[in-house]
Amino acid sequence: MTTVTATMPNTAADKAIQAEVIIKTLRDSRRSLLGWTLGITAAATAYAGFYPQIAKNGAAQTQNLPESLREALRMNDITSAPGYLGSTVFGLIVPLLTMFFGAALGARVTAADEETGTLDLLLAHPLTRTSLIAQRFAALVLAATGVSAILWLAMLAVRGGADLTAVTPARFAAQCAQVALLTIIFGALATGIGAVAGRRGAVFALTAVVGVAAYGTHTFAAQLGLGWAAYLSPFHYYIGGEPLRNGFQWADLAILAAVSMALVVGGTYRFNRRDLRN
Fold first, then answer.
1. pLDDT tens digits, one per residue of 182-230
2. Where does the sequence pass through the membrane (predicted)?
3. How confident is the model at residue 69 (pLDDT cuts 50, 70, 90)?
4. What pTM does this model have?
5. Greater model confidence, 277 or 256
6. 3-state DSSP of the chain
């Protein structure tokens, strides 16, 4: 009885601390989260609103582009709603913004506190390094999911007025799920780098460089005769299955989730073995 009585309060206290870390992380990031949410949804809906004009004149506007470039930029079917959204809104604007969004969130998991010197104070509480990363990353996942859900609602709001009814709400949901996982994988990359480097600015910059390189690899690998390299890019698993046409791509979602987990686990392993005083 004594053992049970002693253990249960500790378990309850641990759960309370973990929940508090998640809530505090989201609360401390509320302004930046609001800014990213507004920025991503505003850009997506604004470009989606151009579709009626593109449907009428898009073919003429892109016919002078080389065939290889149209293929690389996914502009061969730009006059259809899935084709337009897949090449511009969800093929360029949203993924690049969410990449930077994920990098910014991931850089805050441990690197921000380590850089400001408050990490030791935080870990003085009954909170392990593993638990800290796990709870901070859980907050990142919640934030990415929330932004993607709002993006989905925003796209449904403009769907009728922008003549995008060819894309069903379920297929918009499939694409927004891919947006969430793309945000998460770059957040996981930044989390892993931050667990090793501990410098927020460097973490964000390195994650952004990797992200831009990955986007370029996905976009131009075939044109460079390196088609196999596209499979190394998370952007391939983000949009290669064309969720706006084909709905949920469960294998691609699973790959993005598995790689995200591997990056966080690898970063956590290194973080637990680092001397944070250096």
1. 999 999 999 999 888 878 888 999 999 999 999 999 888 888 888 888 8
2. 33-51, 84-105, 137-160, 172-196, 203-230, 250-269
3. low
4. 0.88
5. 256
6. CHHHHHHHHHHHHHHHHHHHHHHHHHHHCHHHHHHHHHHHHHHHHHHHCCHHHHHHHHHHHHCCCCHHHHHHCCCCCCCCHHHHHHHHHHHHHHHHHHHHHHHHHHHCCCHHHHHHCCHHHHHCCCCCHHHHHHHHHHHHHHHHHHHHHHHHHHHHHHHCCCCCCCCCHHHHHHHHHHHHHHHHHHHHHHHHHHHHHCCHHHHHHHHHHHHHHHHHHHHHCCCCCCHHHHHHCHHHHHHCCCHHHHCCCHHHHHHHHHHHHHHHHHHHHHHCCCCCCC
Handedness of CA 225, 82, 249, 148 (dihedral sign): positive
For 47-113, the three-class secondary structure string (H helix, E strand, C coil) is HHCCHHHHHHHHHHHHCCCCHHHHHHCCCCCCCCHHHHHHHHHHHHHHHHHHHHHHHHHHHCCCHHH
Q: Give me 70's structure tokens.
A: 């149209």
Nearest to 216 by CA among 197, 199, 235: 235
Take residue 258 and report the two structure tokens written for it.
């598995």
Q: Domain coordinates of the chain in residue numbers?
A: 21-271
- Fill in the amino acid letter for 8: M
The string of pLDDT tens digits covering residues 226-250 is: 888 889 999 999 999 999 999 999 9
Tokens of 52: 């009626």
Residue 73, both tokens: 């930029």
Tell me the C-alpha to C-alpha distance, in Å, between residue 75 and each of 69, 87, 96.
8, 6, 18
- Whether residue 222 contacts residue 71, with contact meaning beta carbons closer than 8 Å, is answered with yes
